[in-house]
Specification:
Elements: H1 3-24, H2 29-69, H3 78-98, H4 116-143, H5 145-172, H6 177-202, H7 208-236, H8 240-264
Helix pairs in contact: 1-4, 1-5, 1-6, 2-5, 2-7, 2-8, 3-4, 3-7, 4-5, 4-6, 4-7, 5-6, 5-8
Length: 265
């Protein structure tokens, strides 16, 4: 196996564990209290980091790929932007049809009660999103180890809150620890599956990265700008700490981007 395979496998596995850990913290009551109290700040840091990595790294890299690989330069800007938009709209479609009750970062209490069908529909909808998380990790890692690391961090920062939210929905549907573990492990496995499938298919299709990367970036952009930011703002009001956390996420990206560039170049 190549070095890129082991990097993709490691990052996919660690991201998957974030989903599972998010569900597990629902059971020790003290840990759950601290986790839910800090989830908004984690989401804010994650949103800032995801927006930064999408606009500063992923989109420029995507344009470079199309300029390098496509002969007709007039199509190089329109095509990847259409794919980006497709990824964004695909996430809108999934979250408001397949999983209309799911809102990443929203705290769901067991006593609120939701149907089992709604809970599992949310898991199914999020499974498609987590699959693209894995695709994006793999596609970025195929371009460079440093970019793969940055994208992994962007994905990992929202994995814990994702698992916490899905686990809360399963509990609210009347399921216990086994149901929460099943749901979060499923989400984690779809992340790893997305990464491995892209790696296997991409070995025979060298141009696949330039198509997959903008679609996955559109999914990430939706999660950051249309899921996380509105949810954070809605539940946090005018809290200055949330704004600081989001700016911290952006600043963290620039620091790590410079560090990664120094390490890998």
């Amino acid at each position: 196996m190549s070095a890129s395979f082991w990097q993709i496998f490691l990052f996919g596995t660690l991201a998957a564990l974030g989903n599972i850990l998010g569900g597990l913290v629902l059971f020790p009551s003290k840990v759950q209290t601290y986790a839910k109290a800090s989830v908004r700040l984690i989401l804010a840091v994650g949103a800032g980091f995801m927006l930064a990595v999408t606009f500063i790294e992923i989109l420029p890299k995507t344009i470079e790929l199309w300029q390098r690989d496509v002969e007709h330069s007039t199509a190089t800007f329109a095509a990847p932007m259409i794919l980006l938009l497709a990824g964004y709209l695909l996430t809108q479609l999934l979250e408001h049809t397949i999983a209309p009750h799911f809102h990443l970062g929203e705290e769901v209490h067991a006593d609120e009660g939701i149907s089992v069908h709604s809970a599992y529909a949310a898991v199914a909808g999020m499974g498609i999103h987590t699959f693209f998380d894995g695709v994006m990790i793999a596609a970025a890692s195929e371009l460079s180890a440093g970019l793969g690391f940055l994208v992994f961090l962007a994905v990992a920062l929202h994995k814990f809150p994702e698992g916490l939210t899905v686990g809360s929905m399963v509990l609210a549907a009347g399921k216990g620890r086994a149901g929460v573990l099943t749901a979060t492990i499923t989400l984690g496995l779809t992340t790893l599956l997305g990464a491995l499938i892209f790696y296997i298919v991409g070995e025979g299709v060298t141009s696949l990265v330039r198509y997959a990367l903008p679609v996955a970036a559109g999914v990430t952009l939706y999660v950051a700008a249309s899921d996380l930011v509105p949810e954070i703002n809605h539940h946090s009001g005018r809290s200055v700490f949330v704004t600081i956390a989001m700016f911290f996420g952006v600043g963290l990206f620039f620091i790590l981007d410079l560090a990664v560039e120094g390490i890998f170049h």
